[in-house]
Design goal:
The longest helix is centred in the C-terminal third of the chain and has 28 residues. About 30% of the residues lie in helices and about 25% in strands. The C terminus is likely disordered. It is an alpha+beta fold. It has one domain: Medium-chain alcohol dehydrogenases, catalytic domain (Quinone Oxidoreductase, Chain A, domain 1), CATH 3.90.180.10.
């Protein structure tokens, strides 16, 4: 498979062996990948991947499941996005099924590539690092509504949700398109 890898401070398409899909994992045929600061730091050689993680760039991606390991509840053909330790900027990636989220209705795969890191960060900061109270605990995609959440005793203001929504749209539009343009042209970034 082809994959983007940081080689001597440059990003280049390289041929990589396809990863194996083990118990509890899924193989995603990547449609788009998000571009994060950590990817840029890794490209520059300043942020090594965690031990055992892929050296291929890409910490989040979206696509369609093409293989399901034993014990996973996902189905071949499911549209998903995933938070990764690495490997998202490739033709395919294998990831623990617990790190995969369904792509919401009305969201394209290109837009969905920028969602996992944003939602994980918001979820962590709003619900894990603060004394937030959740009226109805639901997965991150379901909770992004002001009527569902309360931070402390005050409702999260609608302006915060609108700002987050605009930021997600901007990130979803920009980063995956940069990667996709490089992927389809065969050029390095």
């Amino acid at each position: 498979m082809k994959a983007l890898q940081g080689v001597e401070g440059q990003v280049a398409w390289v041929e990589e062996p396809s990863p194996t899909c083990d118990v509890g994992q899924v193989r995603i045929r990547v449609a788009a990948a998000g571009l994060n600061r950590a990817d840029l730091l890794q490209k520059a050689g300043l942020y090594p991947p965690p031990p055992g993680a892929s050296h291929v760039l890409g910490l989040e991606c979206s696509g369609v499941i093409s293989e399901v390991g034993a014990g996973s509840s996902w189905q071949v053909g499911d549209r998903v996005c995933a938070l990764l330790a690495g490997g998202g900027m490739a033709e395919e990636v294998v990831v623990d099924g617990r790190h995969v989220l369904p792509v919401p209705e009305g969201v394209s795969l290109i837009e969905a590539a920028a969602l996992p890191e944003v939602y994980a960060t918001v979820w962590l900061n709003v619900f894990s690092c603060t004394p937030a109270q959740v009226e109805s605990v639901q997965p991150p995609f379901s909770c992004a509504k002001p009527s569902v959440t309360r931070a402390g005793s005050a409702s999260v203001p609608p302006s915060a949700w609108l700002t987050a929504k605009r930021w997600v749209r901007r990130a979803a539009w920009c980063a995956p398109m940069i990667w996709r343009a490089c992927a389809t042209s065969g050029r390095s970034m």
